[in-house]
Amino acid sequence: WNEPSMVMKCLDAGAYGIICPMVNTKEECESFVSACRYAPRWNRSFGPVRARIYGGDDYFLHANDTLLNFAMIETSEAVDNLDKILSVEELDAVYVGPSDLAVTMGYVPFTYEKEVEDCIKHIVETCKKYNIKAGIHCPDGKTVKERFDIGYDLGTISADAALLTQASKREIADAKK
Predict the structure, then answer these.
(1) Pick from 11, 20, 91: which is nearest to 54 by CA?
(2) What is the DSSP letter of 110?
(3) Which of 18, 38, 40, 39 has its CA nearest to residue 29?
C-alpha cells in the first residue's frame, strides 16, 4: 500500500522493486517514489539490514539506481491524473490493474468493454510520451501478447491461484474421461 514505512521496510528486506496500488494523484505518486529513493534525491530512510545480504555492503551506493518502482493505475481518477502522475521524477513504471479500472468505470471485472480497452491503450500511449515503462495484469498469455502488440513492456499472466485452479480443472476433466 502507499504507506512510506511499509514501502521502506519491503526495500530494506531486500525487494528490488515495489508495485504500489491505488496511486491516483501526483502527490500520492510523489509520496510513493520518495519512499523508494535515498536522500538527497528523495527521503527513504537508511536501514537495509537484509537488503545488504542480497545487494552487498555497497548496497547504499547503487540502490537508488537499481530499484524499480511501479505506480498502479487502476482507477478512472488515476487515468484522469495520468499526465501528472507520469511527470513525477524517478517514477520507473506503471502497472495497470484492468479489473479495478473497469469497476471504477462502471463495468464488471474481467470484461473488456470498448471504453476499458480504449483506456488501456490510452495509458500505454501516454507512458510512451513520458518514456515510462508500462505493465499490465492479464488473464492469459494471449492477452499478454495483445498488450505487447500495443506497446506494453510487461505483462503478468493471471495469478498463481487462478492458474492452479485452471490446471486442476483441466486435469480432473482428463481423469474423468
Answers:
(1) 11
(2) T
(3) 18
Residue 34 and residue 4 in contact, taking contact as beta carbons nearer than 8 Å = yes
Q: Distance between CA atoms of 36 and 111, rounded to whole angstroms?
A: 34
Taking a C-beta distance cutoff of 8 angstroms, is the pair 63, 47 a contact?
no
Which long-range contacts does 157-165 make (Cβ < 8 Å, 24+ apart)?
A: none
Q: What is the CA radius of gyration of the chain?
A: 18
- Residue whose entry in the numeric block shows the C-alpha cell 476499458: 116
| C-beta separation of 16 from 8 below 8 A | no
Query: What is the pLDDT at residue 23?
Result: 98
Side chain identity, residue 130: Y
Instruction: Write the DSSP assignment of 31-69 as a string of letters.
Output: HHHHHHSBTTTS-BPP--TTHHHHH-TTHHHHHHHH-EE
- pLDDT < 70 regions, the chain: none
Distance from the Cα of residue 88 to its chain's centroid: 15
DSSP 17: E
CA distances from 154 to 6, 94, 132, 141, 147 (A): 24, 10, 12, 12, 9
Q: What is the pLDDT of residue 119?
A: 97
